Amino acid sequence: MISKTYNPREIEDKWYSYWIENRYFNSKPNPEKEPYTVVIPPPNVTGVLHMGHMLNNTIQDVLVRKARMEGKEACWVPGTDHASIATEAKVVAMLKEKGIQKSDLTREEFYEYAWEWTDKYGGIILQQLRKLGASCDWDRTRFTMEPALYDAVIDTFIELYNKGYIYRGHRMVNWDPQAKTTVSDEEVITKEVMTKLCYLRYQVVNSYPLTVNSDEVSDNGQHITDNDDSIIIATVRPETIMADSAICVHPDDERYKHLHGKKVLIPLINRAIPIITDEYVTMDFGTGALKVTPAHDQNDYDLGVKHQLELIDILTEDGKLNEKAQILVGEDRFVARKKIIKLLEESGNLEKIEDYKSNVGHSERTNAVIEPRVSLQWFVRMKELCEPALQNVMNDNIQLHPAKFKNTYRIWIENIRDWNISRQLWWGQQIPAYYLPDGTVIVAKTKREALRKAQHELLLFALTEADLTQDPDVVDTWFSSWLWPISVFDGFKDPNNEDINYYYPTNDLVTAPEILFFWVMRMIIAGYEFRGELPFRNVYLTGIVRDTKGRKMSKSLGNSPDPLDLIDKYGADGVRTGMLFSSPAGNDLLFDEKLCEQGRNFCNKIWNAFRLVKGWEVYSPQSTVHSSQLSVLWFDAKLNQTTAEVLDLFSKYRLSDALNVIYKLIWDDFCSQYLEMIKPGFEQPIDKATFEATIGFFDKLMALTHPFMPFITEEIWQDIRPRGEKESLCVAEFPKAAPFDATLLANFEIFFEVVTNVRNLRSTKNISPKTELPLTIKTENQALYQPFESLLIKLANISDISYTTGKADGTSFLVKADEFFVNLEGELDVEAERENLQKELEYTLGFKKSVEAKLSNERFVQNAKADIVEKERQKLADAEAKIATIQEALVRLS
RNA sequence: AGGAUGUUAGCUCAGUUGGUUUAGAGCGCCGCCUUGACAGGGCGGAGGUCAUGGGUUCGAGUCCCCUACGUCCUACCA
């Protein structure tokens, strides 16, 4: 006895183990077959599955399963990312709970804890992916911190350094004065804060050339003019004026043209700084004059570099003023701010203070206000490396789906800055740079090699390993994940191995648009740089999963359902289809559990169709029922038509559309129409030929649906298949498009319309579906309807069918230009009939008019393509025939 | 602020080189239908001047421009 509803739970576990046991997901290079490769975007090793992963991995699985069924050597490589910042933060928090400070540990000790943590929580997410049905080759699971991949990072660092792409330089970073470390841009939370905008007056120095010793100038007072010759700037950080290197105004600003080339004195400390001009300045903000403080502001830093200004850092690493500030030395930056305002007020340099709303960066971890700070970091020179990455996306060697992202991608690359790859963390690949006691840098794979280099290249034979210190920083996580498509096949360790030669370049990459820049672009760069070839041919960009209100799903909002709960509730197939129903590439998915419900209902629908067919008793008659024969021909055509459509949609990466087309094929065409057409009477057997054709349809439908719903399709497929033919739907053949009879499909459409009209008539006249009705067809083309008679009787519950070219009794409806009469018992509601016909007439007349307007337009007839004009003529003829029929009917009623 | 992108039924979206009827689907809604595969179901129905205003064209949901609103990315401005 088959259950009335589909029960996913045991079926899913059963088949997943079966697939794994039989190693259907494992792949080896096979020269006989075309490879199809996907590398998973490695999730954070300590992460748990969220809705974004579900969507992303469902899409990958659909693509991989289809390729596998198409006979390709499908290989989906899973793995995880060490996620240095996120993981280190979690480990540090865990240590804190144990009462251990990171600073109390050696690097080695810290690693022990980190690995312990990774082993404990790592890979949970990969277990969860199995529940979803992901057909990964689990034997190939990789981790970005495992030795081989660690080495790949070190080797590529050295290679790029030797090629001159990596350099060490002073750059502005986000400094957390409380944690005394730099933090990445992603860890900076900008918050809106109310601050004071101070307007400060700087005195202009008139004499030229200016004496270097500014004290002298202020002492004798000669060079300082009265208030008319001064410039007022606005700032929210008055405590940094001692670090000013210039005042900047817009070159076209008439107010300040007379000051170009002059110098001003910084209030309180009276150091002279130049007035420079740059179009960066917004004339109508503040006073249109800007103090330039290169050491304490990113934009000012850029200006400083451009105008070669002095860089004066007046802050200590914990955010206090240092000796270079000259005044308020030792005060905290915020205390200093208050105090200096007072000093400025006393000295008469403070013009006014306004309340001002500004966005200030805060550290995610300590909530301290981030201090832009210049420090020594490692960088990758990007401009040249980017060239192939830009070109090969623009010329579609690598295709983005949807293509609209090409634009964004181009703009990003064109504005790229050098990539800061050093991070002041421990969990990650330590930079292979060694410092000699005098500060000389040697980049080498090991300390021993660095020493050898120092001895041989620098002739420093007296050095020992103890004299060398390795750079404590690690590289940015993306510096390991950009190698992923190559490193998972050991393309660095062994650049000519069988795997990399066979699987690389990979085919499709599925990821979120948010990391197009961080990750996708960098993988493309790495692909061309390290293998001289693209890393993948297609990039499928998913949307972001949001809730029904359009908010991003997040832990803090608590609006993200647990994917495993969903799978438990709706089944993996239900959740998979639920997510894909409404998520075309590049579109955000507004997730609603209703979608999963729809997915589950779809499973149930398929399940019950299967139950119905399974329950039939089969017999072998002399000849097959005619209506069933016709139905089989029709569904075969429909199936071929839809298969072609599905294949076309797949080729365009329109997976949502492909799923919807399949959904309708199964629900509407197969269940609602086909099964109803061939269904034998209650407790009647079905003829063998029809039964077998139906089983054949099931076979193809399950194959077509398998990439989307692997579990239920496998269950049914296994049940209907003769044993021993092929062992799993996973590796069965994906349906191919075959020719189909388009005329047959068109005639069936007319037939369905007739059926719908009869049902509609019953509905409006309140006649039970069980009451048989006689039907008279008024047509010039009797031959069109004759083949459908038996089906019409069955589906519309007609007692008998007759034809006429004249008139008939009863109420009627129109399909095309033919009229269908149903003689109902009782009175005919003439008024209602007339009203309906009148409405239809009006519509058709309006339609005819619009077609006529087109056709009577000479320019249309001249300019439009011949087939378009012909179609319009046909439309007109159809409309005219229909109008004639309606008018006859109206005459008859009056 | 700059850039990208979007605005089609109550909601979520299709509508692929401009011409297959006067625009489609799913969900929701309304009406009718429960012994017979499935109420997680069946049958039927209502619902849109394609954001606004211009333009190009014989013809515009589709191409161009303006405006409004939304989303995203980058930069956040002293």
Topology:
Elements: H1 8-21, E1 35-39, H2 51-69, E2 73-77, E3 79-80, H3 84-97, H4 107-121, H5 124-132, E4 142-143, H6 147-162, E5 166-176, E6 181-183, E7 188-205, H7 214-220, E8 230-235, E9 246-249, E10 263-265, E11 272-277, E12 289-292, H8 298-307, H9 333-347, E13 350-363, E14 371-380, H10 383-394, E15 399-401, H11 405-414, E16 419-420, E17 422-423, E18 433-435, E19 441-443, H12 447-457, E20 469-470, E21 474-475, H13 478-481, H14 484-487, H15 498-503, E22 506-511, H16 516-531, E23 536-541, E24 545-546, H17 563-570, H18 572-581, E25 589-590, H19 593-614, E26 618-619, H20 626-651, H21 655-678, E27 686-687, H22 688-705, H23 710-720, H24 742-765, E28 773-778, H25 782-785, H26 789-796, E29 798-804, E30 811-815, E31 818-822, H27 830-856, H28 858-863, H29 866-893
Parallel strand pairs: 1-2, 3-4, 9-11, 15-23, 22-23, 24-25, 26-27, 28-29
Antiparallel strand pairs: 5-6, 5-14, 7-8, 7-10, 7-13, 9-12, 10-11, 14-16, 17-21, 18-19, 18-20, 28-31, 30-31
Helix pairs in contact: 1-23, 3-4, 10-11, 10-16, 17-18, 18-19, 19-21, 20-21, 20-22, 20-24, 21-22, 22-23, 27-29
The structure holds one RNA strand of 78 nucleotides.
